[in-house]
Amino acid sequence: MFIFNLRFPLMRILYAVDKSPNSDIPSNIWFNNFFSSLVSLGHEVIDFKYDLATTFRKLNDPDFISQNRLLLGYELLSQIRILQPQMLFSYFYDSCIDPSVIDEIRNLGVVTVNWYCNASYQLDLVSKISPHYDWCLVPEKFRLDDYRALGARPIYCQEAANPRIYFPCDLPLDFDVAFVGQCYADRPDHVLWLRNHGVDVHVWGPRWEHHVTRRSRNPLKWFEKTRSLPSSVVGGVLSDRALVELYSRSRINLGFATVGETHRSERITQVRLRDFEVPMSGGFYLAEHSNELSDFFTPGVEIETWKSQDELLDKCRYYLLHDDERRCIASAGRVRALREHTWEHRFRDAFQLMGLT
User: Fold this and answer.
1) In whole angstroms, what separates CA 74 from the centre of its chain?
2) How many domains does the chain fold into?
């Protein structure tokens, strides 16, 4: 049982967030983390009744956007007038809603808060609405000044994990090295590097099938072996429950930090939700190094990190041979996550900075 000292008034919160950051993947990841944690703090949290899944799935459709922004804004104002919440908690892009709607909600005396976790390389997607919110929750520390330059009021609020969702599972260790996540940026390069150097790494998630070995009738295409993955190590999209279980089924869980395709030009990295999910689940985590991640876990004590492919390979080999060290680090990581990195901690600290005490 997790008990928190509630020093702020309980609120009625209208919650306008899709179930998942990717509407094409069946998941309740945001609901499990955000909604559940706000409720556990004692707030009355009311789900916004609107088809946000379609809203986010069609954000690249100009005709849909122009019509949907009007409908979503009308519905949001209607439900706020009926429910009279003290706070609007949303995950919106500029394409979701007109800034004037946020202004009108603020004029009704409702505190407006927007969460967004892609500003590391896509701040432009929220640049118009951010100045109109009372507060923007920002997990990218290096973007805080950029939000301020827009006229917004950011609060640094790093990602976290819900211990009621992420916890150790009593399962056999089926995999040496595992990674769960979309296939993009330099992720396939690192995975192929490990495979080509004898590390048994398995992957799950969208688009990895594009790197599966294809048989060629041309005998000269001998190089395909080093550029492709065998189908036996490539899985599909995992359910939320299977994801948590995998962290316990893997001796080593990998983490990559590059965002988008920024490795092709000016490489940008950021802390990920996975950086808290794996330790909270009791898994051993071998993450790509970032200075910001070191603010939350001590490398070599609570997680492990790597800076180059050679170091990644060396540490995979080392920790596959040193079970006791690996288990000790995983255990310490979970203790740290439970102590400091739950969403209850994040929301409590953010609400205090907002003056809701």
Assistant:
1) 29
2) 2
